Structure prediction request, 141 residues.
Amino acid sequence: MIKGFKEFILRGNVIDLAVAVVIGAAFTAIVTVLVESLINPLISLFFRADSLQEALQLTVPSLMGGEATFAFGAIIAAVINFLAVALVVYFVFVHPMNRLKERQAARLASDEPDDEPLPTETELLVEIRDLLKKQGESPKV
Prediction:
């Protein structure tokens, strides 16, 4: 049982997943700072997103005599925040990386020769023989 667990932990997929989680956490910090420092101030130029959380609330009496509050504004604010984060991630990270990959693929495609099959050993020997015959037949100067 311990041997199986050891194989599971040392398998490449688990290590890759652990690295991805750590990098994802660090990446989250970068995206959060970009959104809070750049996107949220841009949004606040047009309207206050914070006011949505407080403004669109529906309070109804509960069956136990209390009140239940539905915070629709908080949902809308979360959607706006998500879209802002997705916008930053796409335009700052995804789009430039896709462009870089496209350029790299185009560069590699232009450097590669056509997909002609390589001649066999026999075909090469026949070509060499023919070239040697041709050289022997040509007049020497």
